[in-house]
């Protein structure tokens, strides 16, 4: 939402509202080429402030700034020019009817009444979004955890591109602050507490709760303006989520396996609910062998104009959102079970080796003492 606290920036510009045609799969817009920049290796030790923080004295740039899209692009956050090969499969996932629940007629009537009021962003977030995405179901589900307007900790910033040689001025981007964030419940992974402790903020990045692990779905709300702002916010939110999930994979299985099995697949989904439209997008990573350069790509999956929705179409949109959350939660849960177990086992093995080495050293010392005696 637009009333979140942020650092003022003199170069601000409001995004424009974009209306979408009713119930259609997304087309692919043109995308500017990404500058040639190299990221610092996230697995190598970084000097203080090198990950996510610009040079001392650099100013913050918020999502309302005119240069915010440029800052995202310099961090590798771009919209894909080409449709991903799994686009049709993801579309079918969103359209599945099994496991979703319909909206009541009076609930839809409240949506229509709310959307008649111009600029009613706060009401959209409180009246429309919770029943539309079944937020109460997500929050009471034993597998999932949802947070409303929860800011990520300051350490959760993307690595900065190496820009000194190119004379590029890099600004600070504040950590994500989504309107809705969905991740996994910590209580289901307590058996991997050594791995979770080792991963720290990578595993639990939300400042107001440590009960959520590895967020994988983000939603932004806007009124009658600001749709483009929401696009930029969601791309940044998703990029940070992807970065953490990719770090988990790299820590557990190495860079080469991660490049082959994690990259180029939809790992995070996002949605925008505004007065004029509702959209869902997919987000994924790409990387090149022999390079630390990571790109965070996005592609529109579904869009709909809210001004022409019938009762059945509102139920269809609700089904999209429910399926989107269910899909990424299932994918993330499978990754966490595999990768956290691997990291946890590695830590335990390391501890056993240390104990064994200490025990052997003590035995040798006792034998020497016996011989000397």
Automatic annotation (TrEMBL):
Residues 124-335 form the DUF7924 domain. Coiled coil: none annotated. Residues 1-58, 347-373 are annotated as: Disordered. Residues 38-50 have a biased composition (Polar residues). This is DUF7924 domain-containing protein.
């Amino acid at each position: 939402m637009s009333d979140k606290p942020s650092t003022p920036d003199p170069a601000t510009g409001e995004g424009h509202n974009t209306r979408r045609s009713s119930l259609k799969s997304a087309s692919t817009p043109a995308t500017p080429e990404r500058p040639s920049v190299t990221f610092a290796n996230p697995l190598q030790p970084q000097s203080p402030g090198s990950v996510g923080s610009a040079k001392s004295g650099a100013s913050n740039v918020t999502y309302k700034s005119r240069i915010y899209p440029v800052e995202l692009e310099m961090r590798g956050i771009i919209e894909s020019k080409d449709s991903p090969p799994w686009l049709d499969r993801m579309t079918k996932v969103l359209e599945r009817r099994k496991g979703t629940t319909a909206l009541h007629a009076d609930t839809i009537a409240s949506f229509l009444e709310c959307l008649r009021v111009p600029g009613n962003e706060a009401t959209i977030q409180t009246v429309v979004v919770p029943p539309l995405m079944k937020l109460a179901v997500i929050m009471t589900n034993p597998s999932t955890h949802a947070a409303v307007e929860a800011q990520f900790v300051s350490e959760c910033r993307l690595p900065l591109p190496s820009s000194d040689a190119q004379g590029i001025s890099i600004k600070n981007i504040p950590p994500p602050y989504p309107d809705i964030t969905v991740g996994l419940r910590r209580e289901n992974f307590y058996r991997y507490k050594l791995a979770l402790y080792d991963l720290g903020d990578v595993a639990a990045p939300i400042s107001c709760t440590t009960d959520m692990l590895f967020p994988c779905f983000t939603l932004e709300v806007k009124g009658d303006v600001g749709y483009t702002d929401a696009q930029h916010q969601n791309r940044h939110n998703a990029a940070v989520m992807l970065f953490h999930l990719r770090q988990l994979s790299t820590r557990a299985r190495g860079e080469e396996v991660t490049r082959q099995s994690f990259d180029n697949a939809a790992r995070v989904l996002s949605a925008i609910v505004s007065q004029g439209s509702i959209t869902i997008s997919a987000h994924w990573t790409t990387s090149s062998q022999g390079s630390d350069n990571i790109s965070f790509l996005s592609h529109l999956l579904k869009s709909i104009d809210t001004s022409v929705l019938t009762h059945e179409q509102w139920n269809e949109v609700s089904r999209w959102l429910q399926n989107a959350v269910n899909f990424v939660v299932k994918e993330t849960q499978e990754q966490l079970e595999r990768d956290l177990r691997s990291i946890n086992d590695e830590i335990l093995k390391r501890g056993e080796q240390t104990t064994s080495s200490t025990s052997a050293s003590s035995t040798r010392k006792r034998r020497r003492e016996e011989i000397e005696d």
